[in-house]
Amino acid sequence: MKTNKSDEISNRNSVPILAWDFHCEYVRELKAALTDLKKVKKISNQFTWNEKNLAIEERLKNEVVLVTDLDLKIVFASNGIKRMTGYAEEEILGKTPKMFQGPATSKTVLKEIREAIKLQVPFEKTIENYRKDGRTYQCKITSSPVFNLKGQITHFIAFERDLSA
């Protein structure tokens, strides 16, 4: 069976639809990461954070980033929050991370976290949190206070990872 030249050219330059789906998803994730980075940079610039040890840009790629004010109200959540908890950023802004806790959340770990926050020191803990649909997940939290260039605490930042995924 003989094919014409246009069929040959068409077949050589075609890309399966599935590849475009992956590409579009990658572009969406890249765009979300850039948007997250811009939002965090805006907060950072506004409060003149000392970002030296935070590595925010690198950590945004693999972890959920939460930023709270000194009253522990959430002022920023990266796009990964929806995947991890089921909540969109708009649903959690202005609330505290307590919204992710429930009966299975360790009171001992919560006490240790509160103590670290009170002392304004970094901490790393794994805690049982709750998704929007009520299912639990193991959340590894690496958190630290954020200081401005004058040495004054302005926020707390948490890098979170779902260990049960």
Automatic annotation (TrEMBL):
Instruction: Spell out the Gene3D superfamilies in the cross-references.
Output: PAS domain (3.30.450.20)
Residue ranges constituting the PAS domain according to the UniProt record: 65-120
Keyword field: Chromophore, Flavoprotein, FMN
On whether Lipoprotein is a keyword of this UniProt record, the answer is no
Record InterPro entries = PAS, PAS-assoc_C, PAS-like_dom_sf
The record's Pfam families line, in alphabetical order, gives:
PAS_9
Q: Which residues form the PAC domain?
A: 121-165
The protein's name in its UniProt record: PAS domain S-box-containing protein
Please tell me the species this chain comes from.
Flavobacterium chilense
